[in-house]
Amino acid sequence: MSQRLAVHEPVLRRLLAGLYGEHAHFDAWLGELMASLEALHSARPAELRALDEQRAAQPDWFLSQRMLGYCAYVQNFGGDLNGVAARIPYLQEMGVSYLHLLPFLRARAGENDGGFAVSSFDDVEPALGTNADLDALTTQLRAAGISLCSDFILNHVADDHAWALAAKAGDAAARAMFLVYPDREMPDRYERTLGQVFPQVAPGNFVQVDAMGGWVWSTFYPYQWDLNYANPAVFAEMAVALLRLANRGIEVFRLDSTAFLWKREGTNSMNQPEAHQILQALRAIVDIVAPGVLLKAEAIVPTCELPAYLGSDEARECHIAYHSSLMAAGWLALSEQSTSAMREVIRNTPALPQAATWLSYVRCHDDIGWNVLRAEAAAGGHDANARLARAARFYTGAEDSYAAGASFQSSDPNAAHGSNGMAASLVGLQTARSDEEREQAMRRMLLLHGLALSFGALPVLYMGDELAMENDYSYLHRPQHAMDSRWLQRPRFDDERWQHRSEGCMYQSLQSLLAARRRHEALAANAPRTLLDDAPDGMLALARGERFLALMNFSGQPQSYALQGRWTDCLDGRILDGAATLAPYAMQWLERGAAA
Ligand code: GLC
Questions:
Q1: Using CA atoms in the order 478, 484, 485, 490, what is the torsion angle rounded to 10 degrees?
Q2: Domain 162-224 of CATH type 3.90.400.10
Q3: Residue 596: per-residue pLDDT
């Protein structure tokens, strides 16, 4: 560790002095933090230290085209952690090397936002298993070449976390972990410029709590209390909590809601410079104690705000960040049968620092948030609101669309917030009545996956999409969930479909794509990407290096693209000379020259 300390400790000290240097006892606090890091490093198991060394020597290990992610809720995928372990062979069959299990730490009793209201960072949720089960799972996954990714919900804790309970009981130090205001004066001032994440189910950003004698900042649900990162104790507690989990073998942390960590009056309190300094300080800590660990930013923010979460070669931040604009643009393109906004997104996507990458995906447990696309949807003088609201309506099935989704958090049909639904339901598989409709829906599903797999990113499949699982409407019968249509896309794993997966067209076609991706180094996350502007509006053409071309037809009409020279279709081996003509919603991966 001493070599790493020499490199990263000065960075850490500078960042922390910038954030907390003005506090009384700063030096003593920093001394204690450094001692905790030392102790956590000493406690790090030998096997993990070996992994640290290996990855520190090859810091771009996660950029390979052989990396593939899979994301699932523990309870839906395996029932509990042991059930997840039993599915490892299935993950291996698909070539998965990274498994993101949605929150599995002890969650608030009662409603808890699908586990995103954490009441202990040190214990597994009893309904999902024990800490020993988690240790066993990380060990088994590692042996299978799969890194476990866990959410680390660092913006807030549940209102029954020990800190919240102590604060309610009058403990001043615990109260200082939160942002509490005695009356509405400050909340009202902040509210003037704050947005709303859940305007329908959880309006406003503050909750009145009698036991706290005032208003507590809660960006999300009222039982999720934002942490006060202006308090150095919060930073230190969270940093060591993360490292304790890392010592259990968690290799990737999905840093939840990173955009919200720092509040500033007169702003929307998102993407503040201090939020980035906090993330950079966490990165320095990981670089010192556990360099085998990756940090992944969940910041669902406009494209122009995204790159900062990956830092720069000089100021390292997270290793991975969700490219939510690319994801949303894929769905927008399908609904509009035009790639114009997506091309804007790609143009606005800069080259990344070394050993950093985007995370690409088609669906996840959250909504497709349209607001991240405002700038791109406005390009060329368009009315962004009208355009995004149209997409949101499209995915509810309005205007004869094939989709069967729901709008999220918006009762106003002319406003766009988000759209929910499983991918298969959104692309039309659920409503398809003929073989032709089914075939087209299947193509749309593969098209979006083809984009995620060929863009140059770490692609993550969402549980059930590989089996074309459809919406789950059971949430409507659960009063605590009925208002939150994100539950549409949180079904239980369908064992029946899984048993018959070899007959499943989606599963088989996706496996062919995955296999082709693994074969082509041009599809590695860090291999060069060029947007080809000579494709028709309905088509996206991406070159990966000089020898690989991905063509994607987002329109319901055939589209052609003129080719220079001879190319081979990577999926069916056909030779193309002169032009590629793609059927409605089809995609093609081409390799220059004739296959050997
Ligand atoms: C993230 C999660 C989302 C959750 C929110 C609050 O955005 O993805 O599901 O509701 O954070 O924790």
A1: -70
A2: yes
A3: 52
- Ligand 1 center to 153 CA (angstroms): 8
Q: Which residues of the chain have pLDDT under 70?
A: 410-415, 594-596
Helices (H), 156-271: 162-168, 172-175, 185-191, 232-246
CA distances 397 to 116, 394, 406, 417, Å, are 30, 5, 8, 16
Predicted pLDDT of residue 2? 82
287 is catalytic: no
Query: Which of 255, 257, 260, when mutated, tests ligand 1's pocket best, judged by the most ligand atoms within 8 Å of its CB?
Result: 257
- Which atom from ligand 1 is nearest to the alpha carbon of 219? 6
Asked whether 269 and 262 are in contact (CB, 8 A), the reply is yes
pLDDT at 376: 98
Quote the strand ranges of 111-258, DSSP E. Answer: 118-124, 147-152, 156-158, 180-181, 206-209, 214-217, 224-226, 252-255
Which candidate in 151, 256, 336, 484 is catalytic? 256
Q: Which fold has domain 530-592?
A: Immunoglobulin-like (2.60.40)
CA of 257 to the centre of ligand 1 (A): 7
Q: Is the CB of 151 under 6 A from ligand 1?
A: no
- Could you give phi then psi for residue 9, rounded to 5 degrees? -65, -40
pLDDT at 202: 84
Listing DSSP states for 251-309 in one string gives -EEEETTGGGSS--TTS-S-S-HHHHHHHHHHHHHHHHH-TT-EEEE-----GGGSGGG
Tokens representing residue 586 in the block: 């089809």
Confirm whether 162-224 and 530-592 share one CATH topology: no
Asked if residue 256 has its Cβ within 6 Å of ligand 1, the reply is yes
Q: Is the CB of 153 under 6 A from ligand 1?
A: yes
Ligand 1 mean position, distance from CA 510 (Å): 28
At 325-369, the pLDDT tens digits run: 999 999 999 999 999 999 999 999 999 999 999 999 999 999 999
Number of residues assigned to the chain: 596
Write down the domain spans for the chain: 162-224, 530-592
Active site residue 298: yes
The strands making up 180-181's β-sheet, listed across from edge to edge, are: 180-181, 214-217, 206-209
- Name the burial class of residue 535, with classes exposed (0-12), middle (13-18) and buried (19+) by CB atoms within 10 angstroms of its CB: buried
pLDDT at residue 150, rounded to an integer: 98
**Cα–Cα nearest to 425, from 554, 357, 337, 331:** 331
Cβ atoms of 319 and 379 closer than 8 Å:
no
Identity of residue 297 = A
> Going by DSSP bridges, is the β-strand pair 559-569/587-592 parallel, antiparallel, or unpaired?
antiparallel
User: Are 460 and 361 contacting, i.e. CB atoms less than 8 angstroms apart?
Assistant: yes
Q: Which atom of ligand 1 is nearest to the CA of 486?
A: 9
Q: Is 366's C-beta closer than 6 angstroms to any atom of ligand 1?
A: yes
Pocket test for ligand 1, best of 108, 111, 116, 301 (most atoms within 8 A of CB): 116
This model's pTM is above 0.70: yes
pLDDT of the residue at 152: 98
What is the pLDDT at residue 278?
98
Which of 155, 298, 364, 366 has the most ligand 1 atoms within 8 A of CB, as the residue to mutate?
366
Q: Single out the catalytic residue among 298, 317, 376, 466.
A: 298
Number of H helices, E strands in the chain: 20, 24
In the beta sheet, which residues pair with residue 118? 107
Please answer whether residues 207 and 215 qualify as being in contact, where contact means their C-beta atoms are separated by less than 8 angstroms: yes
